[in-house]
4,4'-diaponeurosporenoate glycosyltransferase
Amino acid sequence: MPRVSIIIPTLNEAAALERTLRGLSVLDPPAWEILVVDGGSHDETVTIATSTAGTVITSEQAGRSIQMNRGAEVATGEILCFLHADTLVPDDAIAVMTKTLANPAIACGGFISLMTGTETTRWGVSLHNYLKTYYAPLLFRPYRFFFKGLRLLFGDQVMFCRRGDFWACGGFDPALPIMEEADLCLKLLPYGRIRQVNRVVQSSDRRVAKWGTLKATAIYLYVGFLWGMGASATTLKRFYEDIR
């Protein structure tokens, strides 16, 4: 079975990280390695990661793209999995990833993200996030890309790909503070299809809880539309504040 390296970028994620790492501890089969790449947390993130995770890496710069690339540099597994610190995966996630990428026609995969909180499940937002994996490439890229297998995956979908393909396409663009996963999908398409597997991961609803469902959905749509029209990363980031 190919070895899977799980890479978790963190910045002040003490409230969520311990639960995520607990979930990873019961994976069957287990991950080859778990790499927490911290961008300069001021809370207990590093302490939690050090006591629970396999390896903790300090990134000289903060930024998901930069931190995930740093983790990929250190990783030794044949498959790279990029996991947000507030996302829970099923206990057979490693088997799902290796089975998906056993098909040489698939270059990258991701899960269906179900956005949940302590007392609610955001069914409407989750449905929209599921659908935009398909409609976004249809709207903003030539149809031939869609029929070649282009799907746009996002961070809370737990993207995974072969390490060789990741570096062959250049990895994450370090200049992108947002939409870096969708950009990676575009760059991986020449190496195979992008697939959303029919399995669920649970992501925190903290952003929706703060903004409200309508505002959050409007921002997701607006940022996606601007990205599809070629807006700069600086412009996009203005609408997408960090929330912990």
In short: The chain has a mean pLDDT of 91. The first helix runs from residue 14 to 24. The domain at 4-237 is CATH 3.90.550.10 (Spore Coat Polysaccharide Biosynthesis Protein SpsA; Chain A).
